[in-house]
């Protein structure tokens, strides 16, 4: 019998748990540890922050989801991981493991610059449920007393989609309320250009995003480093200042404290280095899934930014990790696999949206090119995101990570979540070294 522990019950952890339970015989013990009793569909939080959707409509009760599924659920936070001993500390309890999957999601580095701290209360974010609720309450007050609006990201941020969604949705909401002429809007980003998205080379994404921001009369400040925030004022490295009555800024991400404190486990940001199997290079019993994994940016930018890990990328990591553990335990006979890191991102802007396809997110190390890079605008994107939210929440209710019809749908688009490691090119990219 193997003891398998999954830490985190979000977009990565819960599907990994479901897939492990599907692949492994019942004698193998699976434990899911979460510091929250709810699963949240994180991509919908910009809607919550603007009071376009209730948080309860994108959350599911974990206890109910996991009942009678052959999974032990622990509601608690992890305080320590001891890789050499293959055990973790949860409260006063020591839990041993044969394999552990880190799928915690990220901790927000709110101490990255002065004034970003939650205690300061100057700016909002929509990166987790509590912050989205605070953003929604602040937005209600802002609508009653409108003024300057600033949306964007700080240096070393890595997921820019929510910022674009928030600023264009905010414009749409303000127009519906007849308040847009009272609200000057500024979008400020450390990206070298709008539409870069942390990966660059995304077909016509820069053109589409820039066009929409211009049409909505949103002032754009790109390649900009925010250095500090004070009450109603944002300061940039070039000495410019931005006044605001409401601001939503995306902070940098980092690994949780228990990972950062473990010797030789993570990089300086607390992210796990991984091999092609998504195992840790030094501790083969440890796997990483989602935002917590370390991905090298495909290009250097004047202001440091990170690589986004979208929901589809996280889903691919989850499927790959569960598959590879099942192979190692002899539960299935198949080659080891690696996630393809292809990504479809749906960004809703209210009366329109943009669908981004990066196949794959990290360009081929030999050519520096992607197989495909597509950006398409249309009202259908908004409807598609709503439909996908319903689909993903339904999957989680069913207890299924990757149903056959989802696999068929991806294949019809020429996409897949994973591929055999033997077919992947490793020699030029240390991120994808074959595990031996």
Descriptive overview:
The structure is a single chain. By secondary structure, this protein is of the alpha/beta class. The chain has ten helices and 24 strands. The protein has helices at 13-23, 45-49, 62-66, 129-144, 161-176, 205-215, 257-260, 311-328, 379-398, 404-412; strands at residues 3-7, 29-34, 38-40, 59-61, 72-75, 80-82, 87-90, 93-96, 99-102, 107-108, 149-153, 185-188, 219-221, 226-230, 233-236, 241-243, 246-250, 253-254, 286-288, 337-339, 343-348, 353-359, 372-377, 418-420. It has a five-stranded parallel β-sheet. A four-stranded parallel β-sheet has the order 13-12-11-17. Strand 14 (226-230) and strand 15 form a beta hairpin. The longest helix is centred in the last third of the chain and has 20 residues, at 379-398. The protein is globular, with a radius of gyration of 21 Å. Residues 424-436 have low confidence and may be disordered.
Q: Which regions are unreliable across 5 or more consecutive residues at pLDDT < 50? A: 424-436
Our measurement of the CA-to-CA distance between the termini, rounded to an integer number of angstroms, reads 24 Å
Number of helices: 10
Q: What's the count of strands?
A: 24
Specify the structural class: alpha/beta
Main sheet summary:
5 strands, parallel
How would you classify the quaternary structure? single chain
Mean pLDDT score: 93
Rg for CA atoms: 21 Å
